[in-house]
Amino acid sequence: MSEAPSTSSFGFRDVDSREKVRLVRGVFDSVADRYDVMNDLMSGGVHRLWKDMAANRLNPQPGELILDLAGGTGDMARRFSKMARKVQQRRGGPDATVMVIDYNAEMIAAGRKKGGEPEMTWNVGDAMNLPIPDAVADAYVISFGIRNVAHVPTALAEARRVLKPGGRLLCLEFSRPKASAIRAAYDAWSFNAIPAIGQAVTGDRDSYQYLVESIRRFPDQKAFAKMIADAGFGRVGWTDYSGGVAALHHGWAI
Fold first, then answer.
1. How far apart, in whole angstroms, are the C-alpha atoms of residue 76 and residue 10?
2. What is the value of pTM for the model shown?
3. What is the mean pLDDT of residues 182-209?
4. Are the C-beta atoms of residues 141 and 76 closer than 8 Å to each other?
5. What are the φ/ψ torsions at residue 46 (nearest 5 degrees)?
6. Backbone angles phi, psi at 138, to 5 degrees
7. From CA 180, how far away is CA 206, in angstroms rounded?
């Protein structure tokens, strides 16, 4: 496993890695109850389409163990559970298991309030130190969460450790728009509108300022794909959504 560095980015600042863990926890403690509402406002609801496309790419199957990292609100896990159950109803097989794992207990609590599916379990856990044996999971999915960990290579190494040979990794994350016009419009919206919306809806401008800054500090598509390959994944690639505003990276445990 990669050794975590002493410093890590928190928005546009560099902080001690242990301090980032505390600061990110504070952000999500603050926004947990309004997290899904804010995602709708920030993306105009488009994040739901991105998540649908990611779930279709995963193609959950009966009997699979699927890890949904940074999944506290449960919106991805509900998709996975329902999709696996539909396949099960057609051709049988054991129940799938979808483990929601989030570092933030407030996010897990917010997700549980919304209800779950029979296949789902709720767990507080650290993406950099998963309480899961080696080579047991069929799939590892993390949606809009990888940029919040203190050391991305460590989280990717953990993903590779817990996946079976042939297991699949999917990482949905905000990324780098390719067209300069889209990039300029997105930057203007992000830095001017999103913190203001956060203030109006949640009374917390600073948390949404961090979320915007963290997107800008995250590696672009090509650089992140290299990080995934360096963690031991094969057939690594990505699909841009909305011109690269978001990207779905994928790889196979080899």
1. 25
2. 0.88
3. 84
4. yes
5. -65, -25
6. -85, -30
7. 27
